[in-house]
Every structure is written in C-alpha cells, then in structure tokens.
Design goal:
This protein folds into three domains: 3-70, Winged helix-like DNA-binding domain superfamily/Winged helix DNA-binding domain (Arc Repressor Mutant, subunit A), CATH 1.10.10; 91-163 and 265-290, 3-Layer(aba) Sandwich (D-Maltodextrin-Binding Protein, domain 2), CATH 3.40.190; 166-256, D-Maltodextrin-Binding Protein, domain 2 (3-Layer(aba) Sandwich), CATH 3.40.190.10. It contains nine helices and twelve strands. The protein has helices at residues 3-15, 18-25, 29-43, 59-86, 104-116, 130-138, 202-209, 223-231, 279-290; strands at 48-50, 55-57, 92-97, 122-127, 144-147, 156-164, 166-171, 191-195, 215-220, 237-241, 252-256, 265-272. Strands 4-3-5-12-6 form a five-stranded mixed sheet, with helices on both faces. A five-stranded mixed sheet has the order 9-8-10-7-11, with helices on one face. A two-stranded antiparallel sheet has the order 1-2. A hairpin with a 4-residue loop joins strand 1 (48-50) and strand 2. Helix 1 packs across helix 2 (18-25), helix 1 crosses helix 3 (29-43) and helix 2 packs across helix 3 (29-43). The radius of gyration is 23 Å and the shape is globular.
Length: 298
C-alpha cells in the first residue's frame, strides 16, 4: 500500500470531485483513478459510487475515510516528532474554532502567541460548530480546537479558556428592551426562540429554565440566526449566548438573565489525550489555556 494513494483518497473523499482533486493534488485524473482502484482492489470494497455528474463515498468508504485520515495524521505527527529530535521541524498548527470565539481578543491572542513562540509557527484555521470540530480533531485533521465540551469524548483533553453569558435577545422596540436585567419568571408570556437540541448549549438552557413553564422553540443553530430573527420581528425574543458577533445587529438588545451565571457556557482548548504532542502544539495549548480572555458583559 502506498502512502500517496492514501493521501489521494483522503483528498478525493473531501472534495468528491475527480477534476478538482487531481488539480489540487497536481496529478492527472488517470493517476488519481488508478490510485483509488489500487486501494479498492487491495481492500476488496468499493470506496466511491460514481455516475456522470457526482461522486459519493459509499458507507464503507466513509468509515474507511475516517480511519485513513487518522492514520495519515499519526504519520504526520511521527514525522514532526522525528524532525524535532533533529532540530529540523517545520512548525504548523491546524487549528479549529467555533464562530463565537472569533473576535479582536482572539486574533490578538493568536498574534501574541506567534510573537512569543520560538518556532515561528504557521497556523491554519478551520471554522465549524463544536461537534464537527471535535470529529476532525479525533480523526487527526486538526491539532487543537476552541470548542464546547461534548459528552462521550474520553479521548480528548479539555482546558477551560473562555465563557459566555446567557442573554435574552430582544428587538430594540420590544417592551423589555430598556431593562438592565431580566428574570426567567418575567418571560412566561413571551415567545422565545433558542438553540436546536443538537447544540451543546441546548441542555444547559433546558436545565436552567426547568420549572419556569416557558414557551421555548428549540430549533436554531446559532446566535447569529437567532439575532437575525429577533432583528426582523419586534415580538420575538431569544435565549442565546452572547458573543461580539451580535454587535453587528443594531436592532437587537441583549439583556443578562438573572438566574444564569456570568460564565454560563464554557469554551475549552481541546486536544487529543495522547502521550506526547509536537512541541509547537503543546506550546500553543499551554499558552491559550493560561491566556486571560475577556469576560463579556461583566
């Protein structure tokens, strides 16, 4: 089995287009097709289903793709550790982050890390929701991620770095808009929007509002979507975690919720719980875990 065949397979599984994959990989389409054929013959399974217009992973192809990605990242990590022992490493950090984390304070932290690091690291950034980031972290596509804690991830290490307060978002014309703080008991007659059950924040809000008999529609992915709905409808309200991105909505007023702690939803520096990280990755984890990110709305 050739390592380059695995890398070709990994990239084709990501882009699902032979023309684009061969161009990205700087190889011909026949070379790419031959590599996939070799893997399919060696494993005895079909990795992709093909027709004239689309390429899709088969079910077994999808499972194998996760395994291949993890194996390739382990090989890359072994190479980095070997280079470190020789003093010839090329320092790269594949970083993932939730959308809410990104702001001036986050960019300043990255800049400060690069200024202090002796490795002159190159940092690539992937944006996604926490579940997707942790999936990519576990398969080796990412080295470290800023994300929420997800259950049943004993193979990951979580270091608390930041938190968000829970707020009630209302239109500036809403009767509650002038309040400095709101109690859950005041919201019984409000139509409230909030996060979809797939969100890591969902259960935290459910636990908080238990016993208050509130009318909450749990259907939305993120605070940006919730804010846009509130901005467009004077009667809507929404429970969400405050982030600096909300400042883009001039028509939305964010009111702290009295019963919620200021650190209602927590974000972590997450890494794989493995014996030894490349030095630059461990340095990044240590730096960001100790960094004093600002507390919002304090």
């Amino acid at each position: 089995m050739r390592v380059e065949d695995l890398r070709y397979f990994e990239h084709l599984a990501e882009v699902l287009n032979y023309t684009r994959a061969s161009k990205d990989l700087e190889i011909s389409q026949p070379t790419l097709s031959l590599a996939i054929k070799r893997l399919e013959e060696e494993w005895g399974v079909q990795l992709f289903s093909r027709n004239r217009s689309t390429v899709e992973l088969t079910d077994i192809g999808r499972d194998i793709s996760d395994c291949v990605t993890g194996a390739l990242r382990s090989l890359d990590r072994a190479r980095v550790l070997a280079e470190e022992s020789l003093g010839t490493e090329n320092a790269t950090i594949n970083l993932g982050t939730i959308y809410a984390m990104q702001g001036k304070f986050w960019s300043q932290a990255l800049f400060e890390f690069r200024e202090k690091s002796p490795f002159d690291p190159h940092i690539t950034v992937t944006q996604a929701y926490s579940r997707e980031l942790l999936r990519r972290l576990r398969t080796g596509q990412l080295d470290v991620a800023f994300a929420s804690r997800i259950e049943d991830t004993p193979d990951l290490r979580y270091n608390l770095c930041w938190s968000q307060p829970l707020v009630l978002g209302v239109n500036k014309k809403h009767p509650l808009a002038k309040k400095k703080e709101v109690s859950l008991a005041e919201l019984k007659r409000q139509e409230i929007l909030s996060y979809d059950p797939a969100s890591p924040v969902y259960q935290e809000i459910v636990d908080l509002i238990e016993g208050y008999d509130l009318n909450v529609q749990f259907s939305y992915d993120d605070e940006i979507t919730l804010s846009s709905l509130v901005a467009g409808n004077e009667s809507k309200t929404a429970l969400f975690c405050y982030s600096l991105m909300i400042n883009a909505f001039d028509d939305v007023v964010c009111i702290p919720v009295r019963e919620a702690p200021i650190d209602f939803h927590k974000t972590y520096v997450v890494s794989r719980d493995e014996g030894r990280q490349p030095k630059v990755v461990q340095e990044f984890i240590d730096f960001m875990s100790a960094h004093r990110f600002p507390r919002l709305l304090s």
